[in-house]
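Section 5.1 Outputs to date
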Amino acid sequence: MPFVDTSNLRVIERLPGWHGRYFHSPSMTFAHYDFARGSSIHEHFHPEEEVYEVIEGELEVAIDGVTQIARPGMGDCTGQRSPLS
């Protein structure tokens, strides 16, 4: 599956305000999220790395206790087990 049109994938609301579409490669999972204004998540971590990029709007992200506003074109590769919210 060389190209994926995320608009054709089923939307899952994993948390209130978190609308995601997912697809997989043999070694990675990809998520395309649309967040409702004001939605949030508790502090947590992943056993693997997490990579994100903001396409539109703003996202307040806290990684290892440092909070930043991520805007379009900004992203991060969060290390394994780094606490984030």
